[in-house]
């Protein structure tokens, strides 16, 4: 069970510090035509450098939700990435959308595959 859960979440070590990683993610979101719709910094509350960035693209969201039978996907929205400092550096974690897309049939699965490509570009911006 633990292995399956670890596969559903991707983690990548950034080549940058916490602040620069956070800024690079937000800049890339903008470059890709997506929007940061939420940013939560938990550093003060937890004593660990930790933030969550929520992103969305209204065209993707609208397409995903247009059919009532697909609206369950709303529980997975918006896309979230965590930026967290670990003993050996800063990591970015997010859902493995490519793997998840393979589990979802039809047009919604295809749309999620497109979202997975956006996720990859975001991750590549910190490498």
Structure description:
The protein contains six helices and five strands, in the order H-E-H-E-H-E-H-E-E-H-H. It is an alpha+beta fold. The protein is globular and about 40 Å long. It has helices spanning 2-8, 18-31, 43-46, 58-65, 97-103, 106-124, and strands at 9-13, 35-41, 50-56, 79-86, 89-95. The chain has a five-stranded antiparallel sheet with strand order 1-5-4-3-2. The model has no long low-confidence stretch (mean pLDDT 93). The chain is 46% helix and 27% strand. Helix 5 (97-103) runs antiparallel to helix 6.
Characteristics:
single chain, 127 residues, alpha+beta, 5-stranded antiparallel β-sheet, 6 helices
What's the short story on this structure?
By secondary structure, the chain is an alpha+beta fold.
Strand arrangement across the biggest beta sheet? 1-5-4-3-2
> Share of helix among residues?
40-55%
As residue ranges, the low-confidence spans are: none
Tell me the radius of gyration.
15 Å
Order of helices and strands: HEHEHEHEEHH
Shape call: globular
Report how far apart the termini are.
Answer: 29 Å
**SS strand fraction:** 25-35%
Main pleated sheet: 5 strands, antiparallel
């Amino acid at each position: 069970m633990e292995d399956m859960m670890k596969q559903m979440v991707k983690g990548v070590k950034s080549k940058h510090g916490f602040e620069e990683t956070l800024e690079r993610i937000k800049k890339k979101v903008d470059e890709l035509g997506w929007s940061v719709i939420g940013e939560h910094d938990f550093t003060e509350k937890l004593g660990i450098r930790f933030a969550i960035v929520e992103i969305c693209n209204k065209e993707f969201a609208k397409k995903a939700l247009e059919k009532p039978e697909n609206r369950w996907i709303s529980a997975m929205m918006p896309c979230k990435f965590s930026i967290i400092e670990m003993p050996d550096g800063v990591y970015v974690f997010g859902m493995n959308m490519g793997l998840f897309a393979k589990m979802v049939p039809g047009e919604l699965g295809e749309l999620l595959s497109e979202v997975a490509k956006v996720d990859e570009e975001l991750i590549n911006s910190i490498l």
